[in-house]
Amino acid sequence: MTDAATLESFRLADSFLPVGTYTVSYGLEQFIQDDRVEDAADLKSLLSTYLRQQVGPAELVALRAAHAAANGGDLDTVCRADRRLSAVTLAAEFRESAQQSGDRLLSLQTELREEALLDRYAERVDADEAPGNYAVVLGVATGLADVAVREACLLCCHGFVTGLLGAAQRLLSLGHTDAQRILDELRPAMTAAVEKSADNGIGEMTPFAPLVDVLAAEHERAERRLFAS
């Protein structure tokens, strides 16, 4: 990639990016409240499941489709991938969180970049013709910035894991060294999720993690919640 594309990928992966992902735990809060995640080993196992069963088969497939469509100026395919991702995301909180983060990222990108496709996509989202999921917006943003699709997928995995590790530090007695160790040990799972996602198209988004969906639904009704999801 060019230096500009590499630096753009760094910016999009930075926790300094104001998209609100620090407010979500994607069900982790409920796993901890139910004593299903009690230590670093449990957390690593859960994050590996997320990568293999949800992020890879759904978010990364949508990201890839949006990335390719953005490069070709095909907004209809971007929106189709966006709608499909929402359709296969069962937990209401997950859909809402992904759309809120996506809306913030899309607003930020339209402010920073003069790209007709971004503006047209934002119009579709505003008209409720597309949900504006974070993974899809990230796919469009990285595609237009000439960030290679594999690097964009790895960026998505890295951001997802670091976000949940940050949530875990607030919910568990998880030190910084343990968090970095988990991040390091999950590299093979991230790579595997990225590689497997390359074989699927929009119609083949198939996330399957039933317990995650059940606890996410349980979290929606929890009396006390630190995180939005």
TrEMBL record:
Keywords: Chaperone, Nickel insertion
Signal peptide extent: none
Keyword Chaperone: yes
Domain of life: Archaea
Pfam families xrefs: UreF (PF01730)
The keyword Aminoacyl-tRNA synthetase belongs to this UniProt entry's keyword annotation: no
Gene Ontology MF, one: nickel cation binding
Name assigned to this protein: Urease accessory protein UreF
Organism per entry: Haloarcula japonica (strain ATCC 49778 / DSM 6131 / JCM 7785 / NBRC 101032 / NCIMB 13157 / TR-1)
